[in-house]
């Protein structure tokens, strides 16, 4: 039993390492998650370090929008990393999709649907970034060079995720077991789904 478990871990690890350096689902999930999590940490440190303080409190009123972006990125990044691990487990073990267990169904939902619908949050953070730009431009307590650097970091990360997703969408062939065909009927939700799917595989 222990040997089987060690073999499963080593096979999954090998599958992950061999795919993370190429343009694959594994690399898309992993690098998107890693960049979002690292971006949240770096942006937080920059914001805390360079924010003007009044009586020990951050003076910049943009902090609430800033923290909303960071919390969303932490959630997004964590789900992307979980999807990366889940996809590696499924592909490395060649799991049979007959008589699915509850855990396999949860993994399937995470891989098939979550990344697409997470992009709604990513679009929402674009609105937050736009508000931050306006606040950093017009609020004197937010107009320091350090805070502007943190805004540049956030903007670069936001666009990296979008551009990386579009590149992966064009280069990655979707495996049949996670292919999600669009309905023939066109309605509001189908159109939204189409836009979200254009942002990544």
In short:
The protein is mostly helical and 201 residues long. It contains seven helices and two strands; from the N terminus they run H-H-E-E-H-H-H-H-H.
Percent helix, as a range, is over 70%
The SSE string, one letter per element, is HHEEHHHHH
- The number of E-state strands comes to 2
What does the average pLDDT come to?
77
Please tally the helical runs, counting DSSP H or I stretches of 4 or more residues: 7
Uncertain runs are: none
- How far apart lie the N and C ends? 36 Å
**Integer tally of domains:** 1
- Beta content comes to under 5%
Shape: elongated
Biggest sheet details:
2 strands, antiparallel
Taking strands numbered 1, 2, ... along the chain, how are they ordered across the largest sheet? 1-2
**Secondary structural class:** mainly alpha
Instruction: Provide the gyration radius in Å.
Output: 20 Å
Task: Characterise this structure.
The protein has 201 residues and is an all-alpha fold. The protein has one domain. Helix content is 74%, strand content 2%. The chain contains seven helices and two strands. The protein has helices at residues 2-20, 25-50, 63-93, 102-112, 114-138, 145-171, 188-197, and strands at residues 53-54, 57-58. It has a two-stranded antiparallel ribbon with strand order 1-2. Strand 1 and strand 2 (57-58) form a beta hairpin.
